[in-house]
Amino acid sequence: MRLLPEEWTASWSALRAMGGLTAGIGFSARHALALAVPLAIGALVGWQVAPAFASVQRENTLFALLAGVIALGSLLAGFMVTLMLFTGRIEQATSLTLEELQAYTQRIKFLLSSQAQTLFAAVLSAVFAIIWLCCFALGVDATGQRIVAAVCFGFTVVALLRCILVPLQIYEIHEAALDDAVDDCIKQEQAKFQQRNGEDG
Asked: How far apart are CA 177 and CA 12, in angstroms?
């Protein structure tokens, strides 16, 4: 008897599948470093600027800042969901060879994994912005607010930095589709040429 609903177990299976895309310790270390560096930079910025918003006189500025972070996180999350749905489509899959299809599928899985990480960062930035608002409203001590602010800024920087990769990912997807279309046309023209030569012969 399963204790968790199907959507939870399916999500856990998807996370394990994403983890299975890693190709050794070096690959995992590079990805962990790419996440840790912007997260640490953003956390340092958040830790330093949080005391400036702690006073009641600047609550309007804090509210405006966090409203912007929440709006940005929501916008990025919606965009990444749409992009992931678009990325997962394989056009003209039947015209590809098995090797081409396997390589193309593996690359799409990597892109989807990268986009999912950007989506998680955007959602977490908005979530911690809401937590920061709650902490401010409840009068949580300054250290607690600085910790929440550090995490909020950290995930915001991660999401913004990873968004720089989005245009390159879109270009890569279209480049692969266009190259496949050109290859298909070449094969069709070669087949027609060979057919005409056979008829003439």
From this structure: 31
Q: How many residues does the chain have?
A: 201
Alpha-carbon span 77 to 116, nearest angstrom: 9
Q: Which two tokens stand for residue 140?
A: 């949580």
For residues 114 and 12, what is the distance between their CA atoms, to the nearest angstrom?
Answer: 17
Separation of alpha carbons 135 and 149, rounded Å? 10
Tokens describing residue 13: 């299976």
Distances (CA, A) of 170 to 6, 159, 163, 173: 32, 17, 11, 5
Other Cβ atoms less than 10 A from the Cβ of 96: the count is 18
Mean pLDDT by 10 residues, the chain (201 residues): 59 60 64 86 92 76 89 89 78 66 77 85 94 88 91 93 83 76 78 73 56
Q: What is the dihedral of CA 181, 186, 188, 194, to 10 degrees?
A: -170
In this prediction, residue 60 carries a pLDDT of 84
Per-residue pLDDT, 1: 43
Q: Which of 164, 171, 148, 174 is nearest to 91 (CA)?
A: 174
Coil/strand/helix, residue 22:
coil
